[in-house]
Design goal:
By secondary structure, the protein is of the alpha+beta class. It has 2 domains: 30 residues, no CATH class; 118 residues, Conserved Hypothetical Protein Mth637, Chain: A (2-Layer Sandwich). It is built from 2 helices and 9 strands. The strands form 2 sheets. Strands 4, 5, 6, 7, 8 and 9 form a 6-stranded mixed beta sheet that branches. Strands 1-2-3 form a 3-stranded antiparallel beta sheet, with no helix packed on it. It is globular and about 45 Å long. 19% of the residues are buried. One of its GO terms (cellular component) is cytoplasm. InterPro entries: DUF167, YggU-like_sf. It holds the Pfam family DUF167.
């Protein structure tokens, strides 16, 4: 049996059989925070948390930091301009300070040349259980927003 996958919150599958395709829908309960996705590691690979971010480069130095947290994205401002990867470095610095992790534990996996980015967090910061890890990161992000005065 071969399965094809469509959609995001509702999974639609196509079952290929000898008589032709049969479609069925599987509803999956998704986490309330789509902004963070915890991916458990395999035997040799540690777990990773993926964060969806929307970056506003070229902001004033006063506004630099995490400004908002929604169900779908972490919004942050950086004063660096998007030239020669400067704003990407600033994004990693802002997140590193907010989450209290080394910059080496953060990596931009998608959106290096876009304002919308997916950033992977690995290392010791994600060694807890999924629930504990997501709760701790959400609290750290909320604290960073309060500290930024947004």
């Amino acid at each position: 049996m071969n399965l094809k996958l469509w959609g995001e919150s509702t999974q639609r599958f196509q079952k290929l059989s000898g008589t032709g395709p049969t479609f069925f829908t599987l509803h999956i309960h998704m986490a309330s925070h789509r902004v963070l996705q915890y991916v458990a590691g395999a035997k040799t690979k540690p777990p990773t948390v993926y964060m969806r971010c929307h970056v506003k480069p070229g902001a004033s130095k006063v506004r630099e930091g995490i400004t908002a947290l929604t169900d779908s994205t972490i919004e942050l401002c950086v004063s660096a301009v998007p030239k020669d990867g400067e704003s990407n470095k600033a994004v990693l610095t802002v997140l590193s300070e907010a989450l209290n992790v080394p910059k080496s534990d953060l990596q931009i996996t998608r959106g290096a040349k876009s304002r919308d980015k997916i950033i992977a967090l690995g290392g010791k910061a994600v060694q807890d259980s999924e629930t504990e890890c997501i709760s701790r990161i959400m609290k750290q992000l909320d604290d960073a927003i309060e500290a930024n005065g947004s």
